[in-house]
Design a protein that fits this description.
The chain is α+β, with helices and mostly antiparallel strands and 541 residues long. It is built from 18 helices and 20 strands. It is globular. It starts with a helix and ends with a strand.
């Protein structure tokens, strides 16, 4: 997910966070059993259906339970064929997908073309209320199963056709040259027949086709996954299983790691960064990741969405001293943002060091001027909202508010609204109940600039929780998706990004590195480009 007086308030923010955060944790005394990796975790927002999971904690589990048509190489991010033998097209609009032989679900069912087509139709059906349904909106027939209002006209999308158990075709509404590259995202996972015949039982104990199976799951406590010995893929688990333990405070998780009660923490708390190298030596990982932390405005609230408020939103951005906050709180694990993507994409991939322009440059004088020109803060105040159970969010939110208050010089006009758990925060965010800026960190689903822009800012997109609407932005995204030349597509996406700089539906704060610390029991610990541990490759001594 992020003069001298500023150094003081940034440091104090850490102390406040330590005093205010609850010390509850989900750890049991003692480490994991032989060959088992014990790892910190947060409760997922929703049941673990692939098309209903669009947050990090649930995504960690799906990455162990499922394998899709493609999988992103943990080191390079390249989309490589996994269950797919080949994906062919002559026009970037109509695709023929052929599956490899030998793939099965852990309950013994074969993975077939129908497994994908049924899963995708379920995901798209408006009656199933799947968060990731918009990822299927490019397919012909989507509007028939997912109308804007009313009941669906059909149960299946006409653009999906099963040819035989190993072959199916996909017809898209328009050209989408990089569509195959998106198919490593977990929403496109296949589902077994058991998902449909006994849905309640499947939700209690999900069945997939990945290297692990679920042994048990207790919400609020943890999940036990065990190696599937008959897994047919090449990326077989190198350990006996993974015990995910729910923590409501990652400082507690870190303490458990140091005391030998936990093997892996994949988000080192900001409060521990000054000590982590001494504590863990070479068992500390800090690397760039496809993650950006932003503050999103609730544009569905007329006070924030009315015409002219873009100046206020830009002014708030200019009141945030990103350099000071990242240096004081995050110590080499965050970099001030200059656009809405990630440096991990590279220049060719769409990252820009200048897309945000002056709007991301700290300038208190200009901040006050813009806010006044835009009509001022709604009601003269603003509240920042986030969960505070993971990610040291309270520390940086206090720091951001202090920066804004110092810049504007009108007292504590910015305050923090902490929500106890990630699940509760997500529920408020996704039900559009928030009335002020809220944390909206984004971990990419796949390494394309398209994924940093379309899901968050396209009208009606799956993670557009601020309800930003801009026809010109939408048109540019559509044009970019249809462009067959990757370089031209990237340039068109960059034009769309300029509109974000003008309208500021969200404030880019900082790019986030992936961080992790692990015990002496483990080896071959690595994070992928999305900062998620590559659990299946971890070895336990």
């Amino acid at each position: 997910m992020r003069g001298a007086t500023h150094g003081k308030w940034a440091a104090c923010a850490v102390a406040v966070a330590l005093a205010a955060t609850a010390c509850g944790g989900g750890s049991e005394s003692g480490g994991a059993g032989a060959g088992i990796v014990s790892s910190s975790w947060g409760d997922p927002q929703n049941p673990l259906e692939p098309a209903n999971t669009n947050e990090v904690q649930g995504g960690k589990v799906l990455d162990m339970l499922f394998r899709g048509l493609k999988r992103y190489d943990p080191k390079t991010g390249e989309a490589q064929d996994m269950v797919a033998e080949k994906i062919e097209t002559t026009d970037s609009q109509n695709f023929t997908i052929t599956l490899k032989d030998g793939w099965k679900f852990s309950n013994g069912e074969d993975v077939t073309s129908q497994s994908f087509v049924d899963a995708w139709n379920y995901a798209a059906d408006v009656r199933n209320k799947q968060n990731n349904a918009p990822f299927f909106s490019d397919i012909v027939g989507y509007d028939d199963v997912h109308p804007a209002s009313g009941d669906p006209k059909s149960k299946t999308m006409s653009g999906l056709v099963v040819k035989d158990p190993k072959t199916f075709t996909v017809a898209l509404k328009e050209k989408f040259s990089t569509w195959p590259e998106t198919l490593g995202y977990q929403a496109f996972s296949p589902l077994p027949k058991a998902f449909f015949t006994d849905h309640a039982a499947w939700l209690d104990k999900p069945v997939g086709n990945g290297p692990y199976t679920v042994e048990s799951y207790t919400k609020g406590t943890g999940m036990q996954l065990r190696k599937w010995e008959e897994y047919p893929g090449l990326d077989k688990a190198q350990n006996s299983g993974v015990d995910l333990k729910v923590y409501t405070d990652n400082n507690t998780a870190y303490t458990d790691l140091l005391s030998g009660n936990l093997d892996l923490v994949d988000d080192v708390p900001a409060q521990q960064l000054k000590n982590v190298k001494a504590d863990l030596s070479n068992r500390y990982i800090n690397q760039p990741a496809l993650i950006i932390q932003t503050l999103t405005f609730p544009l569905y609230d007329p006070q924030w969405g009315k015409e002219g408020m873009e100046k206020v939103r830009q002014g708030i951005s200019r009141a945030i001293d990103r350099e000071e906050i990242t240096q004081q709180i995050f110590q080499e694990t965050r970099t001030p943002a200059t656009d809405w993507t990630s440096p991990a994409l590279g220049d060719k991939g769409g990252y820009s060091s200048s897309a945000c322009g002056d709007a991301c440059v700290y300038d208190p004088t200009e901040a006050k001027k813009l806010i006044e020109e835009g009509g001022g803060l709604p009601g003269g105040r603003m509240t920042l909202t986030s969960n505070v159970d993971t990610g040291s969010h309270r520390a940086w939110m206090d720091a951001v508010c202090n920066s804004i208050n110092n810049a504007l010089g009108k007292g504590p006009v910015c305050t923090v609204n902490p929500i106890g758990t990630f699940a509760d925060f997500r529920n408020q965010q996704s039900s559009f109940k928030l009335t002020g800026p809220f944390r909206s960190g984004w971990q990419a689903d796949y390494p394309l600039i398209q994924n940093f822009l379309e899901p968050l800012y396209y009208t009606g997109a799956s993670s557009n929780y601020g309800k930003f609407r801009n026809p010109e932005f939408d048109e540019l995204v559509d044009d970019a998706n249809q462009e067959s030349d990757p370089a031209k597509a990237t340039e068109t996406f960059r034009k769309a990004e300029k509109i974000l700089a003008e309208q500021m539906p969200s404030i880019p704060l900082w790019y986030q590195n992936g961080s992790a610390g692990y015990s002496e029991r483990l080896s071959d610990v690595a994070l992928n480009q999305f900062s998620v541990p590559v659990y299946d490759q971890i070895k336990v001594s």
